[in-house]
Amino acid sequence: MPELPEVEVVRRGLADHVVDRRVAAVEVRHPRAIRRHVTGPDDFAARLTGRVLRAVSRRGKYLWLELDAAEAGDDALLAHLGMSGQMLVEDPAQPDEKHLRVRIRFDDDGPELRFVDQRTFGGLSVHPLAPAAGGGLVPEPVAHIARDPMDPEFSAAGTVAALRRRRTELKRALLDQTVVSGIGNIYADEALWRARLHGARPTATLTRAQGHAVLDAATTVMTEALAQGGTSFDALYVNVNGASGYFDRSLAVYGRADRACGRCGTPIRRDRFMNRSSFTCPRCQPAPRLTTSRSS
């Protein structure tokens, strides 16, 4: 699933190509693509047609297009890419993609916006903007999502405190989008390796310095990934022009089981984790002892 850098790449592309354009027509080609818009395809199209896309915003892995005035109660087009969703800006003359789900045309007859999704786990929906728990206005379904480390209003100190209050493992807490958003499985593993921390470490034993270290590492690795267009392991993640990112070439541990750690040479270990995998260096990131004590 695309994580923060990949979604931010898409957000920037949409901001360059669809902002300040008026929607002329909406075509829903597969109802599952708008299943989260519970009033159906006709209402979905009606709430977009004639509206101007004023801005493209993001929080964590969610992005949305603000419609006309971005005020509380006004609407936004919320997009979740799921496993394979793509927001593509295409010349209307280009043939339809095999898995085209939604088409949005504009009144300037310029490039259209297409939502393509092979696995149909993602989707589009229209929702009112509402105050978020972490501040600001967001679509109602994501009001519980915390700010992410690349948000100008992100509070590292507050997030470290939230991490330390949890009674769980560190990696699980990093993936909890109500604590800190945008960090998924790939960048959690990379951040933990950079911070020399094991994901199974109990958050109750985390020092403030260690909490700041892992958040700083997450910010750094996601910033580096963003500069390289994100991480693409197959053709399903692309930006709005259909190009893939190449940060996968720079990953230190994720997907590198049995390869030498670039820091100490120890073979990288792969473990099962929440129906996925975790990758660690056994030497750089020793597994936690059964009993530890927390210091400040």
Describe the protein in words.
The chain has 296 residues and is an alpha+beta fold. The protein folds into two domains: 4-142, MutM-like, N-terminal (N-terminal domain of MutM-like DNA repair proteins), CATH 3.20.190; 156-280, Helicase, Ruva Protein, domain 3 (Orthogonal Bundle). It has helices at residues 4-17, 41-48, 156-165, 170-174, 185-195, 208-227; strands at residues 21-28, 52-59, 62-67, 75-80, 85-90, 100-106, 112-117, 123-131, 137-139, 269-273, 276-280. It has a nine-stranded antiparallel sheet. Helix 3 (156-165) crosses helix 6 and helix 5 packs across helix 6.
List the main descriptive attributes of the protein structure presented here:
nine-stranded antiparallel β-sheet, 11 strands, 296 residues, Helicase, Ruva Protein, domain 3, N-terminal domain of MutM-like DNA repair proteins, alpha+beta, two-stranded antiparallel sheet, 6 helices
